[in-house]
Design brief:
Oligomer: single chain
Shape: elongated
Strand content: 5-15%
Helix content: 55-70%
CATH architecture of the largest domain: Up-down Bundle
CATH class of the largest domain: Mainly Alpha
Strand order of the largest sheet: 6-7-8-3-9-10
Largest sheet: 6 strands, mixed
Number of strands: 10
Number of helices: 19
């Protein structure tokens, strides 16, 4: 087991401040969408604090009247004023919350939706390099951080600063300079100490979040691949990997919580000393007859009102800093640049015939890892081109480039002579349907997954697509029929059943261009023969790119391309390629031999 890694150092204060201010500026436009509510809420905030400061002033008058009784009606009027002030403080505070609730929640909803849409707009390369668990945790914490920031900054820090200003003005105007001197000195010392210690603790908190996201990603990855873990009997290995992440998180968490004790002790000491000094000056004033008992009560009430919210300043400041850090991570996702973007002024793809051309295409996932070399071929409208070759030769990359998940390194791909880089991605993908080799389904019903090909399709259309995909009878035999849940990633269905759902989904989409990427690889021979005829019928009048491993499935293709190490080494019909006795003929002979051996084994069994 490795030792816990050292914690990351917090960012320098000036850089951190610039980052925090940038985050706040990014948030402000979302809040100002409701300017009227914002200003009314701020007015209620001021009214609540004026009422709160008025409470000790009225209390002083009551105490002074009771120590020197006069007419009974005056204390009763003051008591009524005291109650009204108390009620006003609560009423205006709740009204402020009522007015601002919609502002906060709408900002959270708008930003979350924007992040969600942007994540879908980012390239496949971005998502392949990220762990989904950590990504979703960043978005979750970021949206929660918005509520935290508004709650603490606007409803805790701002009201406290306003109250400090009002109390300071009263102390300056009515009392000995010692009172304002002690108050301001204690506040400066308290805030300086709190901010300094909290900044130091932020490094531990940031490390906790990083390690928490890492542990969550590792746990989610393990649980998603539950079957694989079981296949290799690696439950304990996965537990140890998860515990390794949790050990590092534990180390950061312990440092974070123990440093909190230091912060609390220091804050309590400063408050205790300040309140003691204030009371000492007030008692001296009462003894010298320069202050009344009411003044002593007033000063004490002011100190309690000031220091009670300040007692939570460390927590508030830490939560605000953490909220800003969480929001910064989320806003950085919005600032991620999409690798593949629509060109300025790009128009929709106009599909007439559906002819597809790859013209001298080179492509590399990484600069030092080129996948395709000068690949050129044409799929005439309504024809079928098949691509075969060993694993890693670049077959599936052709489908990804046609979908424009990546842009070609050089050369171009066209549909009806329109360069894919010059048209809108949405219109391009609307014109293409795919049956992928690895079918991953949504954790919903079978009907939902088929209907995903064309949301809004009727039940009758979904059933018709399922019949063409040879899966209707299977669905009808299930107790819940089309409402049967498929489970996480479709794991409740077999590989063949998932593939037939994918075929039904592609049929329902009814695209002009079709891609079959090992579309029948998970089917048995009988099911494959049944579906093969349907696939041929579906693709009869469509431009079709078929990527195949089983050569028996593509013998009727109009042209077959043999791809090896990213280059087209042979092309022609099935009969033409067999007569050349080249790479395709060798692959065909090998598969015939494998099939014959399987038949012999089955007979012996």
């Amino acid at each position: 087991m490795r030792r816990a890694s050292s914690l990351p150092l917090p960012a320098p204060p000036d850089r951190a401040f610039r980052g925090d201010w940038h985050t706040v500026r990014t948030l402000l436009p979302y809040l100002m969408a409701y300017k009227g509510r914002v200003f009314l809420a701020l007015a209620c905030l001021v009214a609540a604090k004026l009422a709160n400061v008025g409470v000790p002033l009225v209390l002083k008058q009551i105490v002074d009247r009771l120590t020197a009784p006069t007419e009974l009606v005056l204390p009763l009027a003051l008591l009524a004023a005291y109650g009204a002030m108390r009620l006003s403080t609560t009423a205006f505070t709740e009204l402020r919350e009522f007015l601002f609730a919609k502002v906060t929640q709408r900002a959270v909803r708008t930003i979350a939706l924007q992040v969600f849409r942007h994540l879908h707009a980012l390239s496949l390369r971005f998502h392949l390099a990220r762990q989904t668990g950590g990504l979703t945790r960043d978005v979750e914490r970021g949206t929660r951080g918005i509520s935290t920031l508004i709650s603490f900054a606007l409803f805790s820090i701002l009201p406290t600063l306003l109250e400090i200003g009002l109390v300071s003005a009263i102390l300056i105007a009515r009392y000995d300079p010692w009172f304002i001197g002690i108050t301001v000195g204690a506040l400066v010392l308290y805030i300086t100490f709190t901010v300094t210690i909290t900044e130091w603790r932020t490094g531990f908190r940031r490390a906790m979040n990083e390690l928490d996201s890492g542990a969550n990603s590792r746990a989610m990855d393990s649980l998603i691949n539950y079957e694989t873990v079981k296949y290799f009997n690696n439950e304990e290995y996965e537990a140890l990997r998860y515990d390794e992440s949790m050990q590092r998180w534990e180390s950061a968490a312990v440092k974070s919580h123990t440093s909190l004790s230091l912060l609390n002790i220091g804050q309590s000491a400063i408050i205790a000393v300040a309140v003691t000094l204030i009371m000492w000056r007030a008692v001296l004033g009462v003894v010298d007859h320069t202050m009344t008992i009411g003044d002593l009560v007033l000063v004490n009430a002011f100190m309690i009102q000031l220091y009670v919210p300040l007692n939570f300043l460390g927590v508030i400041y830490r939560e605000i800093k953490q909220a800003l850090a969480d929001m910064e991570r989320m806003f950085r996702l919005i600032e991620e640049h999409a690798e593949v973007k629509d060109a300025p002024g790009a128009g929709p793809l106009h599909v007439t015939d559906g002819e597809v051309r790859f013209e001298h295409v080179d492509f590399a996932y990484e600069p030092n890892r080129q996948i395709l070399f000068d690949v050129s071929f044409t799929i005439p409208a309504g024809r079928t081109i098949a691509v075969v070759g060993p694993s890693g030769s670049g077959k599936s990359t052709l489908a990804r480039l046609l979908y424009r998940f990546y842009d070609v390194t050089s050369g171009r791909i066209t549909v009806d002579r329109q360069d894919l880089r010059a048209v809108q991605q949405a219109s391009l993908r609307a014109a293409i349907g795919i049956v992928p080799q690895d079918t991953v389904l949504f954790n919903d019903s079978i009907e939902y997954n088929i209907a995903y090909g064309r949301p809004g399709a009727t039940h009758e259309e979904i059933v018709a697509a399922a019949r063409l995909a040879q899966i209707h009878d299977f669905i009808a035999s299930l107790p819940e029929g089309y409402d049967t849940p498929v489970g996480e990633r479709g794991l409740k269905l077999s590989g063949g059943e998932k593939q037939r759902v994918a075929i039904a989904r592609a049929i329902l989409k009814n695209p002009r261009i079709l891609i079959f990427d090992e579309a029948t690889s998970a089917l048995d021979s009988k099911s494959e023969k049944l579906i093969q005829a349907e696939l041929a019928q579906i693709s009869a009048d469509r431009t079709t790119l078929t990527i195949a491993h089983r050569l028996s499935t593509i013998v009727d293709a109009d042209q077959i391309l043999v791809l090896e190490r990213g280059r087209i080494v042979e092309r022609g019909t099935h009969a033409e390629l067999l007569t050349r006795s080249g790479a395709y003929a060798r692959m065909w002979a090998m598969q015939l031999q494998e099939r014959a051996e399987s038949a012999v084994e089955a007979t012996d069994a």
